[in-house]
Design a protein that fits this description.
Layout lengths: L1 E6 L6 H9 L3 E6 L7 H18 L3 E3 L5 H8 L6 H19 L4 E4 L9 H15 L12 H10 L11 H8 L3 H4 L3
Parallel strand pairs: 1-2, 1-4, 2-3
Length: about 180
């Protein structure tokens, strides 16, 4: 099959790319940028992905622009639902590219992470598939979690410490010292 693989970053692409290629699929990547904050983090992830893609002879479409404001506008006051919005926006963008490029299906490296909400990703992907007419390929890539980490470390790849949005960065680094202080 001809598969469009939404790629969130280089390290998370390692195992899904291997699995898809081992199955005989022709794979092309798609890097979505609007959800990754700050911009320097976006560029660092993009650069890492591009180096990996070059080494693997993986063609990758890089999303144009950087609509951070649009992303924030769409999740503001709905922060608890931000992942659903983010999954939808990224997978819809991938599906539209897949439809334009006459791909047989689209999938995502999000399905590699143990930290992502697989049921939600699958539901969103299948909904978008109905809307766009491009099948969503659900594959649970989590069994290759350790392998992907080891390969990324061997290659000296930048490995990001949070999902990507400004909210996930806060969740990763902010510690409410007032709430944790004992009286």
């Amino acid at each position: 099959m001809k598969i469009l693989l939404h790629t969130c970053c280089g390290p998370c692409t390692i195992y899904p790319l291997k699995v898809l290629r081992d199955a005989g699929d022709e794979v092309m990547g798609f890097f979505y940028r609007h959800n990754i904050h700050p911009y320097t983090e976006c560029l660092r992830r993009q650069e890492t992905l591009e180096k990996f893609a070059t080494a693997q002879k993986l063609r990758v479409v890089i999303q144009d622009g950087y609509d951070m404001e649009g992303f924030i506008r769409n999740v503001a006051f709905r922060e608890k639902e931000r992942c659903r919005y983010c999954y939808h926006d990224r997978l819809r963008a991938a599906a539209l590219i897949a439809r334009k490029g006459k791909f047989d299906a689209f999938t995502s490296t999000l399905l590699y992470s143990r930290f992502q909400k697989h049921d939600m990703i699958q539901a969103v992907g299948e909904s978008i598939a109905k809307e766009t007419g491009v099948p969503f390929l659900y594959k649970d890539f989590r069994d290759g979690w350790r392998e992907g980490i080891e390969v990324s470390k061997e290659r000296g790849m930048y490995r990001q410490p949070y999902c990507g949005c400004i909210y996930s960065e806060k969740d990763r680094y902010y510690r409410d010292t007032q709430a944790s202080a004992t009286p």
